[in-house]
Amino acid sequence: MIMARTSNIFARVEPEVKEQAEQVLEQLGIPMSSAVSMFLKQVVLQRGIPFEMKLPKDTPPSYSSLTKEQFNAEIEKGMLDIEAGRTYPMKSVEEEMKRDYGL
Q1: 84 vs 90: CA distance, rounded Å
Q2: Which residues contact 66 (CB under 8 A, 6 or more apart)?
Q3: Residue 16 contacts by C-beta under 8 Å, 6 or more apart in sequence?
Q4: Cys bridge to 50: 13, 42, 70, 83, which one at CB 3.0-4.6 A?
Q5: Residue ranges per domain, the chain?
Q6: How many other β-carbons are positioned within 10 Å of the β-carbon of residue 74?
Q7: How confident is the prediction along the chain (103 residues), in pLDDT tens digits per residue?
Q8: What SS3 class is residue 95?
Q9: Residue 69: phi, psi to the nearest 5?
Q10: pTM for this one?
Q11: CB-CB contact of 70 with 61 (8 Å)
Q12: Closest by alpha carbon to 8, among 49, 47, 40?
């Protein structure tokens, strides 16, 4: 049997991400090196990243992208929300951030 030539790839990833990925791949019976190889083959076949990459729709605009008028309009919307009682208790915001982002 002829073995295919291989090259080494070195990548830095967060230890938690690596551990979580290893756990999933182990359950699937796929070695990490095979998963990386499968990903790279899909990059070649699809001529790009093999999954959709988008920003979430609910992402608020960044300060640096706003004009002064847009910034003032955003502040006004926030003030109107406060006046109308459309607020969230800090405890629920903390719980949501912990749940969604691990913060």
Answers
A1: 17
A2: 74
A3: none
A4: 42
A5: 15-46, 63-101
A6: 14
A7: 676 788 999 999 999 999 999 999 999 999 999 999 999 999 999 999 998 887 777 777 788 888 999 999 989 999 999 999 988 888 888 888 888 887 7
A8: helix
A9: -65, -40
A10: 0.51
A11: yes
A12: 40
Residue in 9, 15, 2, 18 with CA at minimum distance from that of residue 37: 9
* Side chain identity at residue 34, one-letter code: S
- The CA distance from 39 to 72, in Å, is 45
Residues in the chain: 103
Record the tokens describing residue 5, joined without a space.
């030539």
Tokens of 43: 């990059």
- Can you read off the two tokens belonging to residue 66? 């706003």
d(CA 82, CA 78): 6
